[in-house]
Amino acid sequence: MWSVNENSSLHEDVGAARREVLRRIMRRQAALSLRVAAVFIALLVVLPLANLYAPKAMDTRIGGFTLTWVLLGIFFYPVTWLLSSYFVRKSEEVEAQIAADPELRVSRAEEGA
Amino acid sequence: MIPLLLVIAVIVATVWLGVSATKKSKTASDFFVAGRSVGVLMNASAISGEYLSAASFMGIAGLVMKSGYDALWYPVGYAAGYLFLLLFIAGPLRRFGAYTIPDFAQGRFDSPEFRKIAVAFVLFIGFFYTMPQMKGAGVVMGSMLGWPYWIGIAVVGTVITFNVVLGGMKGITLVQAFQYWMKVFAISVPLFVGLAMLGHGTPSSAAEKGGGTLPRIKAETVVNVKGSTSFPSNVVSTPAESFVMSFPDGAHLAKVTTVRAPKPGEDPIDVSQLIAVAKPAPPGGYEKGSDVFDTPKAKDYRIESGAKVTCSPVAVTKAGQPVLLDGKPVKTSAKIEFEEPTKLVLLSPRDAFSHTQTDAAVPAPAETDPAAPNAPSDGKWLAPFGPLTSKWGYPVLYTYSLIIALVCGTAGLPHILVRFYTNPDGRAAKRTTLWVMVMLGAFYVFTPIWGTVGRALMPVLYANNATDSAVIKVPGMLENQTLGQILIGITSAGAFAAFMSTFSGLLVSMSGAFAHDIYGKVIKPSATPDEKVRAFKIAAIFVGVISMLLGLLVETFDIATMVGWAFAIGAASYFPLLLLGAWWRGLTKTGAATGMLLGGLLSLSAIVANMMLDKKILTWDLPPLVRSLMEQPAIWGVPLSIITMVVVSKLTASTIPADVDTKMLRLHAPEELGLSKDYVV
């Protein structure tokens, strides 16, 4: 296993390069995750607020039930499926890009060393 | 008879599948995580099957029936929580290649001590989660065979424990997948059949009436209320209209208060305004005159056999002036707590009497059937911020706290995360999560309909404080008795599959934690695989027995609420650990441990103290805001845990392990880069 040797400037350089690679990989993944999470969190925050500040609108009847029942009880699920399938598709693209990026190859060389 | 046969069929099929798969399970790795070789759809079915517990199958319907809209957050949170798991945790954790959260904790921080802390939380969360499963078992067996609560728990708990001891998890992967499909069938088909037969019982019929309408029970219905040892199931909250009942065997009222808690400054309401008690009618009926009436007392009051009671709503006043809300006078009615188990017969409101105006011309109430006690009116039931979240007067706070617990807590459930290691790689782990969300949504969409139908067809469950049994009782309302029994059989079998699968999964996780993390890593690191398997079996029996004992204590709590508490503890302990552990290289061992202990233990203590306050074991007088935050602690527990982790990690930054970048790369680099490596060999 790779380990840091404080006295070796070569290892320090390699360590810094490694950290840079890590930073880039994580940044690409996090950007995607946070984007999807933001939409999801917004939905979770907005629905109770809508119930609180627009009770009349949320009380609109749809087949005997109120709009807010239908939104939460039925439509919330497909929305999370869409978010989730978008994420799975995009994250596979992101990982393929990372794997194909020559600048990120340094890490593999390290592991073999 | 039919329900019993169907349930036995499910148990036999489950045990048979488990045992026959065990013959193929040879190595210790097979025993713990199924040899890590399960396909995406199979694994998604198994995760969903394991996840859909008694809370999902019975609890949500019960809570929706009891509380209405607010309870919808439970199924949504149970299902949507997987999105957080997918976005931040599933992929990295699978690449890291550890069996369990304790493995992750030790692997990420090279700290065997941390493993012990992580194991402790497997047990805290696990036991919290097994309690509602046990309640489910007790309720179903009680409803089906009339067994006392504890026998149901003992029998079901023993069967499942032995199945786990004999089968391990290889058996369970197949069994769990099978059980998912069974549960979807059992929750959906009886609903379609029942609604097709009934026609008038469509979900919306309860809701269309709107406003202050109350669900009604047929007059002369007999209701059995529990005694004060089962508080709060000994409570009858009378509706805001005339409400008449008789006590064929007499009654001992522990306490009579008002449904609406009095606010400071309001005039006290005397018990004689709330209830009027008529002594048993002499032959030939009541005679006019005050001698047939008894004077009620607010505490420790005994009612003779055969006596009748009328409860009437009373206007709330402040210094003699009526208290108004939205321009209407506020009224309240009697809330009666019974000392002993009591049989009461609900009578028509037209039988109402009053000792002050026995012969006055009181207009007869429009309804001949009594309104269900303990039931919210249609308006309150349908609207957000209803009885569930308004319990302590802070509905918005309560709602958000519940959402945080459910959404973050899914990632913190020990028996679910371990399943992700049965995926061959991070990509499969993500695809599996997507399918899990689809499968769960397809199931959960049916659960509130059950609650709605229960409200429309079987409001007597409110009076009995038995809404948790809606799914297994409501099909009995069909006119065709045989069909009703078959449908009850199907839902009972589904409920059985639900607590069997979740309890099995928890048992495997908790016993695995003992065998793998405590015995195999701490007590005897040199243990051979055979010794670990033996330790696993002994631990399973031990954990099974404790779970059954805990299950006996929780009969009066709502199943879905209890599972929500397990989520809240997971959300404040494991979720921050996994989130920051996977995404922040600066997280130190000390920081992670402090945050997890502080957030997790404080949440746990708050919930346990709140349960004890509910049961009146503790009698602290706490402000409602504090009670609300104790009952739903995630809104402070999760941030507390995360902030503590960040602050303490910053203070101990010098202890970041030297190889942290290697570890982070292992978590994040795609498999093609060849950096993933199974942590446990």
Question: SSE layout and pairings?
Answer:
The complex is a heterodimer of chains A (113) and B (681).
Chain A: H1 9-53, H2 55-58, E1 61-62, E2 65-66, H3 67-100, H4 106-112
Antiparallel strand pairs in A: 1-2
Helix pairs in contact in A: 1-3
Chain B: H1 2-22, H2 28-33, H3 40-51, H4 54-67, H5 73-96, H6 101-109, H7 112-145, H8 149-198, H9 205-208, E1 222-225, E2 235-237, E3 243-247, E4 251-258, H10 271-274, E5 275-278, E6 293-294, E7 299-303, E8 307-311, E9 314-315, E10 317-318, E11 321-322, E12 324-325, E13 328-329, E14 331-332, E15 334-338, E16 342-347, H11 378-382, H12 395-409, H13 414-420, H14 426-444, H15 447-457, H16 460-463, H17 470-473, H18 481-523, H19 529-552, H20 559-583, H21 589-614, H22 624-631, H23 634-651, H24 660-668
Helix pairs in contact in B: 1-8, 1-18, 3-8, 3-13, 3-14, 4-7, 4-15, 4-18, 4-20, 5-12, 5-14, 5-20, 5-24, 6-7, 6-20, 7-8, 7-18, 7-19, 7-20, 7-21, 8-18, 8-19, 12-20, 12-23, 13-18, 18-19, 20-21, 20-23, 21-22, 21-23
Give an overview in words.
Chain A is mainly α and about 110 residues long. Chain A is built from 4 helices and 2 strands. Chain A has helices at about 10-55, 55-60, 65-100, 105-110, and strands at about 60, 65. Chain A has a two-stranded antiparallel ribbon with strand order 1-2. In chain A, strand 1 and strand 2 form a beta hairpin. The longest helix of chain A has about 45 residues, at about 10-55. Mean pLDDT of chain A is about 85; it is low at about 1-5 and about 105-113. Mean pLDDT of chain B is about 85; it is low at about 200-210. Chain B starts with a helix and ends in a 13-residue tail after the last helix. In chain B, strand 12 and strand 13 (about 330) form a beta hairpin. With about 675 residues, chain B is of the alpha+beta class. Chain B is built from 24 helices and 16 strands. At the A-B interface, helix 1, strand 2, helix 3 and helix 4 of A face helix 5, helix 9, helix 12, helix 14 and helix 24 of B.
